[in-house]
């Protein structure tokens, strides 16, 4: 069985072990550094990659991009804050894009199309999650004043409460209609690439990925997830559908609209619903991992090897859970990387994106580098009272490459992650944290990585 929905690491796991891991990791994260708010005003990196003036840099020529329609899915509860992140970055050099939401409006000159406009009146009347949409249709953005969305994103129970978020519950209804509308908007596109407001895609790599597939045949590509018996492309990492598959999907939906609305009503996730329909049509998913990533570059362990595929050797398409700082840093890096000379690999992301940031500031206060092995808890564990002592503990282990110290607890790790600033959006949970890396060992780790004999793409 594939990972059930919304885990960060795509590997086959026994459900009980997965639940235990999530519980322990979440609990420890709250003890150490609080819950991360993706909207927190943090600074990802002390470095800038290239010129700060990315908005005026010439767009690189990317072969094939003119044949792609980029479809962005968002919602009224986030669109006004998250979409502007993309207007000067993700969309700046994309010739054809189509944005769908639950409210037709214009933001900074970009038109947002109502994905739910052709949902049947009976569904809008009888389905509880349509209350938000009906209010938006009647009152526009003023309808949002009646909803407190922050309680679903900033509380200690955010992960649990998020499922009750009315905007989240409405989201599943967008997937099939947005595919239909996207095809109608540009029926001649060879590829339709779908993304969300917290997705970053590297367009040069996206096109090199798509060029491995025959766009004249039905194709469905993305990072694999599973709910029940359905294997589908996870929406957050982005996915692609070829023109013939989209045309067939539109025809299928037109013939079975009532049945598909009933299936959607009983479903939970819109990307699963879309994958289920494509599967019924005979269009099977081509798995996208490790090219597509649910974690950010600074969160990844670059020794990861799932499904016998070493992350190090594969080319990234994009990343999920990005915020404005991530997009700014990734876009700036993307513009400086010579895509014409070489293919961007995850190993390049480590050596040219992660490692320089570690070297620039190898000791950081208020930073969480995701070290894993816990010291200072339990009768047989040495009690560590300072960050310096934590570093010394790491130095004594020749395999240790980084450490984190906070509130009397030391964590070390033999793998390397950059991590991110400690979130301060939940003051009741936040505790001072210091992170550090043993830089010579981090450099040696990169140099000693075995040569790649696989990759760079997953093609079947």
The domain count comes to 2
Distance N to C terminus = 18 Å
Q: Which descriptor suits the 3D outline?
A: globular
**Largest beta sheet: what is the strand line-up?**
3-4-2-1-5-10-7-11
Pick out the low-confidence regions: 5-42, 154-161, 424-428
Query: Strand count, sense and closure of the main sheet?
Result: 8 strands, mixed
**Strands, total number:** 22
CATH topology of the largest domain: Spore Coat Polysaccharide Biosynthesis Protein SpsA, Chain A
Helix content: 25-40%
CATH architecture of the largest domain: Alpha-Beta Complex
Tell me the number of helical segments per DSSP (H or I, 4 or more residues long). Answer: 15
Assign the structural class, choosing from mainly alpha, mainly beta, alpha/beta, alpha+beta, or little secondary structure.
alpha+beta
Radius of gyration: 22 Å
- Mean pLDDT score, rounded? 84
The level 1 CATH classification of the largest domain is Alpha Beta
Give a brief rundown of this model.
Belongs to the glycosyltransferase 31 family. Beta3-Gal-T subfamily. By secondary structure, the protein is of the alpha+beta class. The chain contains 15 helices and 22 strands.
């Amino acid at each position: 069985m594939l990972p059930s929905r919304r885990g960060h690491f795509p590997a086959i796991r026994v459900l009980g072990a997965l639940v235990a891991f999530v519980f322990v990791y979440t609990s420890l994260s709250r003890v150490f550094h609080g819950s991360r708010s993706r909207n927190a005003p943090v600074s990802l990196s002390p470095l800038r990659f290239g010129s700060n003036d990315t908005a005026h840099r010439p767009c690189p020529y990317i072969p094939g991009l003119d044949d792609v329609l980029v479809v962005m899915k968002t919602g009224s509860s986030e669109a006004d804050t998250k979409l502007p992140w993309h207007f000067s970055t993700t969309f700046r050099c994309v010739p054809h894009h189509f944005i769908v939401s639950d409210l037709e409006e214009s933001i900074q000159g970009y038109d947002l199309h109502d994905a739910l406009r052709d949902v049947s009146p009976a569904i809008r009347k009888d389905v509880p999650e349509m209350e938000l949409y009906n209010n938006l249709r009647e009152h526009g953005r003023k309808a949002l004043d009646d909803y407190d969305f922050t309680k679903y994103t900033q509380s200690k129970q955010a992960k649990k409460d998020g499922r009750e978020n009315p905007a989240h519950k409405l989201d599943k209804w967008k997937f099939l209609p947005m595919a239909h509308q996207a095809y109608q908007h540009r029926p001649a596109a060879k590829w339709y690439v779908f993304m969300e407001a917290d997705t970053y895609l590297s367009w040069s790599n996206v096109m090199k990925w798509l060029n491995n597939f025959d766009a004249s045949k039905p194709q469905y590509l993305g990072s694999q997830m599973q709910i029940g018996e359905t294997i589908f492309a996870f929406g957050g990492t982005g996915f692609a559908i070829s023109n013939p598959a989209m045309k067939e999907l539109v025809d299928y939906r037109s013939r079975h609209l009532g049945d598909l609305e009933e299936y959607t009503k009983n479903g939970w996730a819109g990307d699963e619903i879309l994958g289920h329909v494509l599967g019924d049509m005979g269009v099977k998913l081509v798995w996208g991992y490790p090219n597509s990533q649910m974690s950010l570059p600074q969160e990844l362990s670059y020794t990861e090897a799932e499904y016998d595929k070493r992350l190090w050797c594969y080319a990234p398409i994009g990343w999920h859970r990005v915020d404005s700082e991530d997009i700014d840093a990734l876009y700036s890096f993307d513009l400086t990387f010579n895509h014409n000379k070489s293919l961007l690999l995850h190993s390049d992301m480590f050596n040219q994106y992660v490692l320089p940031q570690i070297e620039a500031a190898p000791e950081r206060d208020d930073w969480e580098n995701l070290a894993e092995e816990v010291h200072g808890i339990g009768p047989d564990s040495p009690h560590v009272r300072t960050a310096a002592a934590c570093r010394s503990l790491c130095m004594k282990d020749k395999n240790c490459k980084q450490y984190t110290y906070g509130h009397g607890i030391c964590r070390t790790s033999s793998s390397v992650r950059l991590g991110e600033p400690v979130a301060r959006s939940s003051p009741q949970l936040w505790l001072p944290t210091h992170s550090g890396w043993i830089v010579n060992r981090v450099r040696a780790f990169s140099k000693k990585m075995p040569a790649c004999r696989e990759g760079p793409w997953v093609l079947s």
